[in-house]
Amino acid sequence: MVQPRRAKWIPLGVVVLSVVLDLVTPSDVTSAPLLMAAPVAAAPLLTLRGIIAIGALAMAVHAALARYDGTFGWQRGVANQLTLLAVTVLAVLINRALEGRDARTRRARHIAAVAQSAVLPRPPSRLGELRIAARYVPAEDEATIGGDLYVVQDTPHGVRMMVGDVRGKGLGAVSAVCADLGAFRYAADEAEDLPGLVAALERALLREGGRRGGQEQEEGFTTALIAEFSEDLDTVRVVNRGHPPPVLLDGEGRATLLEPSEESPPLGMSALVTRASPVDTFAFPPGATLVCYTDGVTEARDESGVFYDAHVRLPFLVHPRALVGDPVTPAQILRLLIEDVGRHTGGRVQDDQALLALHRPARRD
Question: Where are the alpha helices (DSSP H) in the chain?
Fold first, then answer.
């Protein structure tokens, strides 16, 4: 079992403490009960050989101390030795049970990782001149995928991408994620423009809600940010359907929040949409990075209930490096952002976080 190096000294420390207590107390006081704790402490911390070694050491130390005190006899000495032996055997059995549990946990995590790569594959690190990075931070340690999603695809109409957050949790949310991703991958190649792509996603999500039925059919929706880069990368066209707006970082580390010109409801709520989704066009100059994320970032709160503001924090995270001529990469930006969110919340991941960064390298003279 893999444990911190310092923790592995705990069983030996128990033995040393037992020796000290035995030497400073009267001879009729035995430290055998404390010695019995050493093999038990070793069970989750050491290997099989280490546990046996600690058990043997505890028995040897007890025998030496008992002879020194003149108390080694059938009533106390031998009985305590047999008890130490039994406790060592019990520690070995506990260790084997913990190893089996850890092995099952590792297998489950491996299977979950394989499932994640199948359901939510990591985007390519490069499409043409675009440099791309993605990160997924689950709210639960045992889960590696939930209702957040991202996808980037090179299409006949340029590079298109989506970041989304499906309402709900569990298998139902994962099923909706699969439907959204499948619909995007097909429609991104076929749709002539972003409104057509969004309409196809809308229809796919409604079909998925119909299959699930019940309350999911009435209330199922996905907040989504869909974007398309022009062929020369000079502009990025964005449709925002109820999603946190992305942040555009320029080459100097200045941040601009790309808010939508009109508010639009999430995907799956077509009854509230009376016209095609508005498309906003923004400049995407050389050296710029588009940073997208789900509400696991924007709704992260500190102990006082203050929400995290990526628009405010990102310039502080990247600007010092930009000033010395060492701009961060998309992967580094996401790492810095995730770490900063963790500091803001005190290490508590309150909701799944899906993050995507797309960078256009600066022109070289």
Answer: 10-24, 32-35, 37-42, 48-69, 79-119, 170-190, 194-212, 214-219, 295-298, 310-323, 330-345
The pLDDT tens digits of the residues spanning 280-316 come to 999 999 999 999 999 989 989 988 889 999 999 999 9
Tokens representing residue 189 in the block:
């190649």
Hey, what are 210's tokens? 């119909």
Both tokens assigned to 327: 């701009």
pLDDT at 4 over 90: no
Q: Which distant-in-sequence residues (6+ apart) come within 8 Å of 86 by Cβ?
A: none
Cα–Cα distance, 12 to 134 (Å, whole number): 45
Specify the pTM.
0.69
| Angle, vertex CA 109, rays to CA 298 and CA 209, nearest 5 | 55
Into which CATH architecture does domain 120-359 fall? 4-Layer Sandwich (3.60)
Give the DSSP letter string of 62-105. HHHHHHHHT--SIIIIIHHHHHHHHHHHHHHHHHHHHHHHHHHH
Q: With DSSP H G I counted as helix, E B as strand and the rest as coil, what are the percentages for the chain, rounded to 5?
A: 50, 20, 30
Q: Which of 310, 309, 243 is nearest to 277 (CA)?
A: 243
CB neighbours of residue 343 within 10 Å: 11
CA distance 116 to 111: 9
In the chain, the N- to C-terminal Cα span, in Å, equals 55
- Are 188 and 227 a contacting pair, CB within 8 Å? no
Query: pLDDT at position 110, please?
Result: 57
Contacts of 124 (CB under 8 A, 6+ apart): 132, 152
